Amino acid sequence: MPFLRWILVAAVLTGAATLVAFGLHPADDDRVALADPSSTAASAGLTASSASPPQAFPPFSPDASGPPAAGTTRPAAIGPAVGASAVIEDYGQIVLAALQGGSAAQAGDATEVLSRCEGATQVRETLETVRADPKSNPADVAHAIAHFDDRVRRCQSITDEMRAQRLPLAERALRGGERGVSMAYFRLVDFDPPQDMRAPLLEGLRGDVRAGDRFPTLVLATRGEDLGLSPVEARAYALLAEDLNPQLIAPGKFSRNREQERLTDAQLRQAAELKEQYKREMKRPRTGRRVGRSG
């Protein structure tokens, strides 16, 4: 378990460095679609100005499910509605919408932005280390730093009360079949999900891999059997994890362990074939949950 914890922390930091190494421009990833709870899908909409001051939010109750209290509004009333949704940038509004009777999709968006805020300061500090590396591209580093400075600013509207609801929000999203929340949920339960959540977590992890996220393969490789995978399936994910995460895992680190010792030659071949099938089923590699205009 300590090794898995180290791997997941390294994955987060590697993601920050990757933004710089490949010159990616992640700003659009922070534009989150606020879906009308009466609609099953969010359409494209307007984007609030990043220069707008943070808005004040009405108090909420984690158990709120009935009509809004006097002086409060439902999430659909937040921001200028365009079709079924509005694209907004303030993270506090996203979380508030989910807590005030929002859908599973809104719970997934709230889980994502809370995760972003949790690690924003650490990633920002990591980028200072990257900037000191003479091999880094100054322009790309500057762009990434500006991005995370903006993220930290948007996270100022997240309260401690909102942060305390991360686990219920992640569980609601996972039970609702939302993608991009499985890794956040796994960390929130300290890598030990309750029995009744193991099947939803397993389906979420596998679905996130199919959607192109490489990091859930690390969990499926090391804890997959605990969640319900067969030994052959777990080995297939171990092989896939090594393929997709060479910067984190040395060849054979996962696959040449106890699974190889107890599987027959036929099962080893089956696992290798299954790994290729999983790889074919993956969409273009990506990490995490995409919300708003970034998909």
Give a structural overview.
54% of the residues lie in helices and 3% in strands. The longest helix is centred in the middle third of the chain and has 28 residues, at 104-131. It has a two-stranded antiparallel ribbon with strand order 1-2. The radius of gyration is 20 Å and the shape is globular. The chain has helices at residues 2-21, 91-99, 104-131, 138-154, 160-163, 166-175, 182-188, 195-210, 216-227, 231-244, 258-262, 265-281, and strands spanning 32-35, 85-88. The chain has a domain at 2-178.
Summarize the structure.
This protein has 12 helices and 2 strands. It has 295 residues and is mainly α.
Q: Could you spell the SSE succession in H and E letters? A: HEEHHHHHHHHHHH
Gross morphology: globular
What radius of gyration results from the CA coordinates?
A: 20 Å
| Alpha carbon gap, first and last residue | 33 Å
| SSE class | mainly alpha
Question: If helices are DSSP runs of H or I spanning 4 or more residues, what is the number of helices?
Answer: 12
Mean pLDDT: 75
Helix content: 40-55%
Contiguous low-pLDDT stretches (5 residues minimum) are 12-87
Tally of strands: 2
If strands are numbered along the chain, what order do they take across the biggest sheet?
A: 1-2
Proportion of strand residues: under 5%
- Outline the biggest β-sheet: 2 strands, antiparallel
List the helices and strands and how they pair.
Layout: H1 2-21, E1 32-35, E2 85-88, H2 91-99, H3 104-131, H4 138-154, H5 160-163, H6 166-175, H7 182-188, H8 195-210, H9 216-227, H10 231-244, H11 258-262, H12 265-281
Antiparallel strand pairs: 1-2
